[in-house]
Amino acid sequence: QVQLAESGGGLVQPGGSLRLSCAASGKIFSLNDMGWYRQAPGKQRELVARITSGGSTNYLDSVKGRFTISRDNAKNTVALRMSDLKPEDTAVYYCNAEIGTTQTMGVLIRAYWGQGTQVTVSS
Question: Exposed (0-12), middle (13-18) or buried (19+): which is 64, by Cβ within 10 Å?
Answer without folding.
Answer: exposed
